[in-house]
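Researcher:
Attend to token order:
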Amino acid sequence: MTTALAALACLLASGCAWQSAALKIGEDTYQVSTNASPARGGITGAREMALTNANAKCYSLGKKINVTDIQPEFAFPTNGVATATFTHR
């Protein structure tokens, strides 16, 4: 039991994070999702990764970002998640 709890604590403290590619969900509308552990900044880290990914997509198109929505939330057990919806101009 103690070993399992120690392993879980190490997993929670590790710097895990993931992000989706920018997905086209409308004519000029895209969405990205990110997930960051507390060590990677939780909700704040997830939000930063989402906006960085969205900016990179717009830059690759030679456009500027226009964020229309960003939804931050907690994910089990303590991670932060952010989903950003954006268009370009």
User: Anything to note?
Assistant: The chain has one domain: 2-88.
